[in-house]
Fold:
Amino acid sequence: MQTKLIPLAALACLALAGCANDMEELQQKVTEIKGRPGERIEPLPQIKPYESFAYAAAVMRSPFVPSAPARSDVTNAVRPVKDRPRQFLEQFPLDTLRMVGTLQLSGRAYGLVQGKDGLVHRVLPGNYMGQNDGRVLSITKTKISLVEIVPDAVGGYIERPAALALAE
Structure:
């Protein structure tokens, strides 16, 4: 039993030796740090005064409410022609088509449009292209102007101008 007490007593002595009051080195370090001259403290940054925001759009139309009442005249409004034969460039979205130039043949100005398939196609005013019934209105050297028929928010259709600019 005494053999078990000897290691326990040695461990207790070691633990008590760590609790000695030898704080002289620590006191010297603290005294050295306190003896250093203090550095200049930077002034606080200037605080910008708070400018309140006045919400002025409260009297305007809410974006979550329909802008126009439901129309009863949607049958008389603009509609895409369903029974006309579809043209080749109508299978591509308008944003995938690129104008790559113009061509003058027999006094007519053709627009040259490159499709998503990589082929170049000729278009004339009156031709259709794009998936929103885009009808070509005019062709200049730098732009093909057209008008698309797109659905509006109240069940009808509206005409929206669009253009293809000459690709650089």
Q: What stands out?
A: The CA atoms of residues 82 and 133 lie 10 Å apart. The helical segments are 2-18, 24-35. The chain has a mean pLDDT of 86. The first strand starts at residue 98 and ends at 105.
